[in-house]
Design brief:
The protein is an alpha+beta fold. It is built from 6 helices and 16 strands.
């Protein structure tokens, strides 16, 4: 089960095991095999800082580890799609810092630093290496736009209505445009006409960094966090069969029935059909069923991109400062329809 936290006071970010021990290197893809970034050029890695950088640039952000905390998928030159639970605390902290700074400016009694998204996290694309200090020449590290994190308005608003993992979707907007190369390409969002791709019994793929042990322990055949990107094939299941807490099956994709699945720490990573630049994004790694007795190894719950596709498209091009949509608007075509 995911539990990604960003500490408001210490600016720390990590994925936390059920024991409560902070461990950003918890394993991710179960029973995966090493792959290359050319096979999944849309994959993005998210790294969270434990000490923020300064707005002036005189102090760079520092990171507790060299390893990614979450995954994501490239949607366009200027937008990355990931899980809401990966980045919502970052967005909340930035908003709180902005309000704090505005209060200081109005009172003129204090010079308070304002924290930005770029102070708290980094996005890397074009790399099939987990280590941020050992990136290949193909890697790109774009700058995150101010107020660039948009969380789906239905996320967490009515969990009893939709079920766990529903609308666990966020868009990270970039202020520096990605360059398309063989290692960096966007992924298409699944369309309504492609609903059959997520029917029970169909297969899809997941990618991420991490160990392959189904119980979340270290696989003796691999280091704790493999240096190369891992890929596994998983089988679709009925979400309501996998998790009785699911209320809106169209909002959730359940996968994994052969001990192959994503795991704690791989949140936000893509569930996709196809390969390379011809792939289609079906879902985002989100959570485990309520009654799950193991941390990893399937089945798992993924936020359905099919139900969130129109909101993703709007969020990726929304103007800075634009009024946020309500959950009702987000599921009915936006504010102006």
């Amino acid at each position: 089960m995911w539990r990604c936290l960003v500490g408001l006071m210490v600016f720390a970010s990590a994925c936390v095991a059920e024991s409560g021990v902070v461990d950003p290197a918890i394993p991710k893809v179960v029973r995966g095999a090493a792959t290359t970034i050319e096979g999944a050029p849309f994959f993005a890695s998210l790294y969270f800082a434990n000490e923020p950088g300064s707005p002036s640039g005189h102090q760079s952000a520092t990171f507790a580890t060299d390893l990614p905390d979450c995954g994501g998928a490239i949607y366009s030159h200027g937008a990355i799609v990931t899980a809401a639970h990966c980045v919502e605390d970052v967005a909340n902290l930035v908003r709180a810092s902005a309000a704090w700074g505005a209060e200081a400016e109005s009172s003129r009694t204090d010079q308070r630093r304002v924290t930005t998204e770029q102070d708290l996290m980094r996005v890397v694309v074009g790399s099939d290496r987990s280590s941020r200090s050992n990136l290949p020449d193909s890697a790109q590290e774009p700058t995150i736009a101010p107020d660039g994190i948009l969380v789906h308005p239905c996320w967490g608003s009515e969990p009893t209505k939709f079920g766990r993992a529903a609308f666990d979707i966020a868009v990270i907007r970039l202020s520096s445009s990605l360059r398309w190369t063989p290692e960096v390409q966007p992924i298409a969002l699944v369309a309504q006409s492609e609903q059959a791709l997520v029917f029970p019994g169909r297969t899809a793929d997941i990618v991420g960094f991490g160990d392959t042990a189904p119980d979340g322990s270290v696989d003796e055949e691999l280091p704790e966090v493999p240096s190369k990107l891992q890929r596994a094939t998983v089988r679709m299941q009925s979400a309501v069969t996998v998790d009785t807490a699911v209320r809106e099956e169209s909002a959730i994709v359940a996968v994994g029935d052969r001990g192959e699945d994503a795991c704690v720490g791989d949140s936000g990573g893509p569930l996709f059909s196809g390969n390379g630049s011809d792939a289609t994004l079906l879902g985002l790694v989100s959570d485990s069923p309520v009654a799950s007795t193991i941390d990893c190894g399937g089945p798992g719950l993924y936020a359905s991109v099919l139900l969130g596709a129109e909101w993703i498209q709007r969020a990726a091009v929304a103007k800075p400062g634009a009024a946020a949509e309500t959950c009702w608007e987000a599921t009915r075509g936006g504010r102006h329809r």
